[in-house]
From TrEMBL:
SUPFAM superfamilies assigned to the protein according to its UniProt record, in alphabetical order: Second domain of FERM, Ubiquitin-like
Range of residues in the leader sequence: none
Organism, scientific name: Seriola dumerili (Greater amberjack)
Top-level taxon: Eukaryota
One Gene Ontology molecular-function label: integrin binding
UniProt-recorded name of the protein: FERM domain-containing protein
Organism phylogeny: Eukaryota, Metazoa, Chordata, Craniata, Vertebrata
Length: 316
């Protein structure tokens, strides 16, 4: 069999090497490490062969278990021997940002195992990554909900809007079956970690504070930004618990009308409906701690009509 002549790039060094076309990629990497001094750095498993392209999205990592001839390489083609690890900035819903080293050759579903393990989330299969969208796109997505003035009295229209929003919302999720590179995610880009599938909310309680906090923030934001439309009464009930979390027990001498900035507690369409009095009525009967309030408001939101369909909830 005629040998395959390839140019192997290692940093700034380029070597021409001969391989049998049937050579497995794993063995090719081993041969490169043995013959090229510049390649003898780090752990072998952290490195791989990369076939670049003029379009960064079309560049691919060669799989260790496949032969070189699988990729239809020609004499003179260039492969880069380089580290597969890349930094990935992850923004949590509570605003914290974490940088995680991930394997650039892995598809997103495999990558999520590493990301969630580093953060302390065990049910990684329920989470996904979202690309941030600009304010104009958010306004376009949410516009129908915000402009509609009949939400307070028309439950059927509310449900139709939720179904429409569910479809639009999916456009920003990363594809689990493709790599970050294939989806054009650059190393400078920050991604949002968000829960996408709800196989069972029984996994979330006070014994899992990391996930409970993330789910609470996600559910709260879904109500405030209109992603999950709710009735006026239910919105006030949620707001009451949210106030309990932020301000503690109700104090009549301190918590007077005008104390609350309602846009932080109610959806935009309910701000002018004199909801502060109703929120205070809910708070008056509460004497629970912050942790309990977080659990209660999360349970309320998860059990509210429509949230299951709108949030990709799945039961096993």
């Amino acid at each position: 069999m005629v040998a395959l002549s390839l140019k192997i790039g290692v940093g700034n060094v380029v070597k021409t090497m001969q391989f049998e076309p049937s050579t497995m990629v794993y063995d090719a990497c081993r041969i490169i490490r043995e013959r090229v001094p510049e390649a003898q750095l780090g752990q072998p498993n952290d490195y791989g062969l990369f076939l670049s392209d003029e379009d960064p999205k079309k560049g691919i990592w060669l799989e260790a278990g496949k032969a070189l001839d699988y990729y239809m390489l020609r004499n003179g083609d260039t492969l880069e021997y380089k580290k597969k690890q890349r930094p990935l900035k992850i923004r949590m819903l509570d605003g914290t940002v974490k940088t995680v080293m991930v394997d650039d050759s892995k598809i997103v579903s495999d990558m999520l195992m590493t990301i969630c393990a580093r953060i302390g989330i065990t049910n990684y299969d329920e989470y996904s990554l979202v690309r941030d969208i600009g304010e104009e796109k958010k306004e376009e997505t949410m516009g129908t909900l915000k402009r509609d003035k009949t939400l307070l009295r028309d439950d059927k229209k509310m449900e139709k809007l939720k179904q429409k929003l569910h479809t639009d919302d999916e456009l920003n999720w990363l594809d689990h079956g493709r790599t970050l590179r294939e989806q054009g995610v650059e190393e400078t880009e920050m991604l949002l970690l968000r829960r996408k599938f709800f196989y069972s909310d029984q996994n979330v309680d006070s014994r899992d504070p990391v996930q409970l906090n993330l789910l609470y923030v996600q559910a709260r934001d879904d109500i405030l930004n209109g992603s999950h439309p709710v009735s006026f009464d239910k919105a006030c009930e949620f707001a009451g618990y949210q106030c309990q979390i932020q301000f503690g027990d109700h104090n009549e001498s301190k918590h007077k009308p005008g104390f609350l900035d309602l846009k932080e507690f109610l959806p935009k369409e309910y701000i002018k409906h004199k909801g502060e009095k109703k929120i205070f009525q809910v708070r008056t009967g509460l004497c629970v701690g912050t942790g309990q309030s977080t659990t209660l408001i999360t349970d309320l939101i998860l059990s509210s009509p429509g949230y299951m369909n709108n949030s990709h909830i799945m039961f096993t």
